[in-house]
Amino acid sequence: MPVGIFRVCLVVITAIINHPLLFPKENGTIPENTEEIIKKMKEREEILRLEQLRLEQEIAGQEARQKALEKAAKVVEESKEEKVPWDMWTAISLVIFLLIELWRQDFQEGNWQDTGGEEDDMAVLGKAFKGVVLPDKATLASFYEKRILGTTGDMARMREMVEGFADDLLEALRSVCNRDADMEVEDCMGVGSMYENWRVRKPFVCDLIVPFAPPEPYCFRSQIWCSGDSFPPDEQGYGTIKVCRADGDAAGCICDKTKLGEDMLCLLHSQANITRPSSQMEDLLCFKNTQYLDADQVMKWFQIAVTKAWNRISHKYEFDLCFSLLDSPGALKIKFKSGKSIAFNLTPVVQYENSDVYFISHFPRSGLAADLPSSTHWFLTFAVYERRFIQLVSKMLPANACHVSCLQILSFLHGKQCSLTGPSGLTNYHLKTVLLHLLQTRPCQDWASEKLEARLQDMLKFLEKCLHEKKLHHFFIGNGKIPAELGFPIIFQRAEPLNLFRPFVLHRDVYRKTVDTFHEMLRNTSALINEYTVHIPHAHTNGIHKESL
């Protein structure tokens, strides 16, 4: 702005100095051509006037721009001053909204998040089932004694018979195999409900797993979903097994160095490729053109090996042996001449490192069982640790604890309901997982025999909550509170929890069927139990209640 004023003054001074009337010539006379001079002076004056207007406009523009800049700066400063309070109020509003939403959900669910609760308040199992009450303690005790206890002796006799036969069958299997080229089969182990003493529904089926390993110089190298490499969500809980040489060289095979009989096959390579170079051989137990162990190939090998073993020892027994399920490699059935039969599962597994976690080739089909991502993906079973955990906890519980009784009653009710309305996505393994969680969270004294009714209500309440949320975590995976006495691998404790109900999220029809079956079971609980319960006189019932008090 000062520069503009200076320029205006300079123009005015120049005009004054050059004005001819103020500074005449030396002779002091007016020139003769006065009109011409006046004309030029007017022209000059007009030019100066236009220049003055231009300068004034320029000065006005500069002043306007200056005011605009000052106003913009003032707005920026005001916005900076208001920004912090605005952000603070926004954050506070968001937190209040989230708290209201959480409170609303908790209010709708009632007291479902509390698995403990008061025993006297748990006769009603949730807002969806108001009025559904379980039978009293006396009725439950009578039902358990009449319907369940009688099966314990039958299970013990069946286990003894099946284990003895399985040991003989596996010994025969080893004798028909080439020790230099065939898989090495180890002793079988009993797992599942028959060996945890809570199986109640017939037919009784013993589950035996048989670890096997490749012949020297080969070994299995496993990779699990939680080992650090990224696995898709549908492959969580699975792993892969690679067949390779112990010295790291996957090329070559022992069948090239050992002369096999005419009726013997190398379990790593097909018969058509025995005479070919090692680099061109196709693995019999591996997926085509890979080194990964194929569960389908293992199934075929195991069925052939069991058939050969049975042919060797069949003359010693007065019964027949056959495969009961074509899609399960070790689902066997013993058929007696009287028409009776005994079913058992003899399933090949691969040990995970030096633990008692095993890769299992096949599981029995269920409504919720998802298909394997591929035949090279093996599911991991923690059945050995589950049995050990129940045995460990049982030693710390009161005498005649009710934990096994709760699982037996719930398994019976669910199985009976499924026989009436059809199968659902809920399995006995889910029921056992619920019990394992409650065994870890509830005090030992809460499992006394007189608290059977309350603990059964706990299991139903916990299960209903899990179904409502479509979330039931695997007991061992992601559980950092596993007792150290079990020697459980730390890698699984540090893994992300595995949701056993994830298929419910993907299959809405299965979920709807499962929830409907569970609701129907709750409504029919009293009728199902009373159907197998001896009538109890009212006076005797009162006496039992007094004793429990």
Short summary of the structure?
Enhances Ca(2+)-mediated inhibition of inositol 1,4,5-triphosphate receptor (ITPR) Ca(2+) release. The chain is of the alpha+beta class. Helices cover 47% and strands 11% of the residues.
Stretches where pLDDT is under 50 for at least 5 consecutive residues are 20-32, 107-126, 256-262, 270-283, 365-369, 535-549
Q: State the order of secondary-structure elements, H for helix, E for strand.
A: HHHHEEEEEHEEEEEHHHHHHHH
User: What percent of residues adopt helix (DSSP H or I)?
Assistant: 40-55%
Q: From the alpha-carbon coordinates, what is the Rg to the nearest angstrom?
A: 44 Å
Strand content: 5-15%
* Count of runs of 4 or more consecutive helical residues: 13
- Which structural class do the helices and strands define? alpha+beta
Shape: elongated
The total strand number stands at: 10
At CATH's second level, what is the architecture of the domain at 128-248 and 281-534? Answer: 2-Layer Sandwich
Described by strand count, sense and barrel closure, the largest sheet is: 10 strands, mixed
GO molecular function, one term: protein kinase inhibitor activity
Protein name: Inositol 1,4,5-trisphosphate receptor-interacting protein
Domain Mab-21-like HhH/H2TH-like: 404-478
Family: Belongs to the ITPRIP family.
